[in-house]
Design a protein that fits this description.
Pfam families: Cupin_1, HbpS-like
Number of strands: 18
Number of helices: 5
Keywords: Signal
Strand content: 35-45%
CATH class of the largest domain: Alpha Beta
CATH architecture of the largest domain: 2-Layer Sandwich
Helix content: 10-25%
InterPro entries: Cupin_1 (IPR006045), GlcG_carb_metab_protein (IPR052517), PduO/GlcC-like (IPR005624), PduO/GlcC-like_sf (IPR038084), RmlC-like_jellyroll (IPR014710), RmlC_Cupin_sf (IPR011051)
Organism: Nitrospira tepida
Protein name: Heme-binding protein GlcG (Modular protein)
Largest sheet: 6 strands, antiparallel
Radius of gyration: 20 Å
Order of helices and strands: EEHEEHHEEHEHEEEEEEEEEEE
Number of domains: 2
CATH superfamily of the largest domain: Haem-degrading domain
CATH topology of the largest domain: Beta-Lactamase
Amino acid sequence: MKYLNAATGALLMVMVGSTAHAESVADRRGLTLEGAKKVIAAARAEASRLKAPGGSIAVVDDGGNLLALERLDQTFAASANIAIGKARTAALFKKPTKAFEEAIKSGRTSMVTLGGDLQNFTPLQGGIPLEWEGKVVGAIGVSGAASAQQDEDLAMAGAQSLESMDLARDKIGETQTPLPVTYIESRQVSAAFRNGAVLVGEDETMMHAARNYMVHASHRDRPGLVEIHELDTDIVYVLEGTATLVTGGEPVGTKPIAPHELRGSSVTGGETRRLVPGDVVIIPNGVPHWFKEVSAPFNYYVVKVR
């Protein structure tokens, strides 16, 4: 059963911080109609579980083109176009549409002008990108449920269902080719640490299609939220400043912000460490971690490995 199609490029070998090599395929994957229907079915099942009063559910490909749409009984007609707009916006920007709604609420009203240039730009909560192995292959949008939060809950259920589907890979020309060496000069690195930036992998939501890692130049001036990465292991190397890091324990107030990404307000229990320059911490995927206290400026590298 094919849920994703693949036009395959070269087989790549990557080594990150160890002698272990990971093979991956550089490809161009797209969500199929069957896959879109499975995503909608998962969202529809969640609507039934939550006893949602209705809802239109749209799935688009990574270019924002409609693949499938269902409008549940008793749902107002306008919700269909709104759901398509949410899905299209999430796909083209590779991020949940809630981010746009919150930005506008925070005063960035100029963002609404994007609607003049981008058809169906819909900065409303309820659009979630669909990812397969870190690659955005489409998006789901929901409108017409009991609330904006329930719209997003249904969309999230659909997005999370994609990971359980089988992937059919067609490997063409399996020539092992090493990735090119990445060189980032010191001035660019220093600039990245001023506010925190992605050094490698910025063009993808989670992982670059041709590698199984990302590199962040991370900067903190204050404590943050509890983070849980369901797929990614974080390798942290402290450059400057000190921080109190809590790992493990039971996160409080956990909410999904994107597929496979959770955030919480605090942690109960866990192991506390004081980090200083030169320290290295490896945080496996699925482990809650929280920078509870920070002595600014706190700069550190994060290598994300999947």
